[in-house]
Structure formats: structure tokens, C-alpha cells
Amino acid sequence: MSRPMTRRAAAAFWLAAALPLFALEPGDQAPPFANPDLAGRHVLSRDYLGRGWLIVDFFATDCEGCKKELPILERLQREFGPRLPILVLATDPAGQAVMEAYFRASPTTLTVLLDRYHSAVRRYGVSEIPSLFLIDPAGVVALKQVGFQEGLYERIRALLPADG
């Protein structure tokens, strides 16, 4: 006869399910994901992976490091345009309403996707926000940046080909 799960056991089970099983590192193949954008359209990473360089950035509206990264990502977007897609995965649990309000006040040209339930967070093994992954044309992680650090633009730019 099975016993009902205690509240403590249930909380431990859900916490364990929410934690990443591994941490994606440089040299690893980037896993695919599908997340809605702010307009509700699903964006499939497979449409980007293996087709050129790609940045996948994990963001939250209450993260000061994330707010410092956005202008760097905007600069890269202006410089490379469609040759360097940038997908910003918004991890705020409140989801779309919070993100729409944030980006209405601070407009962006970047592609913002909602990861309210942290499915992409788990697939990429993200344990800290911001986390950024530069993925090469073969779909392999070339750079992993955890937390905001000065010099991010230079580190990314050094890995990209001169012609973009």
C-alpha cells in the first residue's frame, strides 16, 4: 500500500525536478528548446542552432547584471544584425505581464522569449542569472558567461569571425 507524500517530501521532489541535472559547458552541444515570444508565437531554437552563430541569454527583470548585459547585446545586434541572432530567455516566474511592462519601459530590438517554467533553464543547466551562451555554427557552446563581468563584449567579439 502506498502512502501519500508528505508536504516536505513533495517540496523536495519539486525542488529537485526544478534544478538542472548538469551544467552546459563550452564544447557541449547546445540543446534545443521552444519558447513563446512576447507576442505568443513559439520560437524554436532548432531554427537557429547549426545555422550560424547564436547567443542565448538568460535574463530576469530584477537582475542588475542582466540590465548591464542588455546594452552589450543590443550593441552586438546592431553590429551583426541577422548574422548573429540573440535570444533572451526571460525567467521571471510572473511571466508575460512582467516582461511586457519591463520592455515597454525599456524597449529592445532583441528577441525576448518567455521561460516562465524554466524549461530552457533546466536544459542549459543554468544556476545563476544572468547566464549567456555563445553557440558556434556547429551548434556547440563556444563561450559560457555566468554572472555579469566587464569585458563581455570583447570576449564575444574575439570569438566571432571578422566578417561576422
Please characterize this protein's 3D structure.
With 164 residues, this protein is of the alpha/beta class. The protein has one domain: 3-Layer(aba) Sandwich (Glutaredoxin), CATH 3.40.30.10. Helices cover 32% and strands 20% of the residues. The chain has 5 helices and 7 strands. The protein has a 5-stranded mixed β-sheet, covered by helices on one side.
Give me the secondary-structure topology:
Layout: H1 7-18, E1 34-36, E2 42-44, E3 54-59, H2 64-80, E4 86-90, H3 96-105, E5 111-114, H4 119-124, E6 131-135, E7 141-146, H5 152-159
Parallel strand pairs: 3-4, 4-5
Antiparallel strand pairs: 1-2, 3-6, 6-7
What is the compact description of this entry?
Helices cover 32% and strands 20% of the residues.
Beta-strand fraction estimate: 15-25%
SSE class? alpha/beta
Q: Secondary-structure element sequence?
A: HEEEHEHEHEEH
Q: How much is the radius of gyration in Å? A: 17 Å
Count of extended strands: 7
Count of all domains: 1
CATH architecture: 3-Layer(aba) Sandwich
**What proportion of the residues is helical, as a percent range?**
25-40%
CATH topology, by name, is: Glutaredoxin
